[in-house]
Design a protein that fits this description.
Helix content: 25-40%
Strand content: 25-35%
Distance between the termini: 19 Å
Number of domains: 2
Radius of gyration: 21 Å
Order of helices and strands: EHHEHEEEEEEHEEHEHH
Largest sheet: 5 strands, mixed
Shape: flat
Number of strands: 11
Length: 251
Amino acid sequence: MSLYAIALKEAAAEPLAPAAFLSAVKGYTRDSARSFLRAQPGFLGRNLQLEAARELAAAAAQAGFDTMLIAETEVPAPPHPIESDWIEPKSNGFNARAAGALTFISYDSITVFSAAAFDAPAAADNISALKPGLFEKIARLAGIPVPPVPAPPRETFFRADIIGGEERLRLLLKPENLDFSPLGPARSHSSLVNFRALLDAISAPAFKAVKNRFLQAFISSQPLTALKVASPEAADAELARLLILTSTRAT
């Protein structure tokens, strides 16, 4: 039996804007509605039976949300990401270096340009990663209670996805892995400031690209807390929705 998704048509929709609506029609609490919207940005429902999907779409329309109903089998999987470590903006496009190879992406060829941020445990160094197991082993040998393991610290990770080029490549950009030397004298000591400047330089001329809300807010230095997604998988889900908007198959 086919299952369906309900997606917002507005590319730059506020991810958490439908939270109150979902709480009213789907039985979510405020927190669970927000959790769903962070995990499935831009979607009001996933894996719904056809009748339930139609009812949700109708209720969303009455609440002022412009949506589309699409079969789950038609929700596209984003192309495999190719991580780039160097971007050089040009007048009509940019050069991207990935795995040592240079590729030119014209601004006119970019169909999707999105950015995202999510909170996740910070990567521990080798010694820090060994400590919990080492302390547990010592405690067991000494016959004393095993000490509680503190939750690992969390930090915010940023990324951007660009789909374009003749071969419809998906470039994945992460500020911590980028060489910002092409920014020249404008380069800052902050990788995040450099990331903002780079995204601004290459997104502004990409007039044909579908762009998400986070990209616009990040470039404009607007508050980002309410725009964070739940995980890398959630960022991929939003990318899939943006791809739907570039397709004529959505109804």
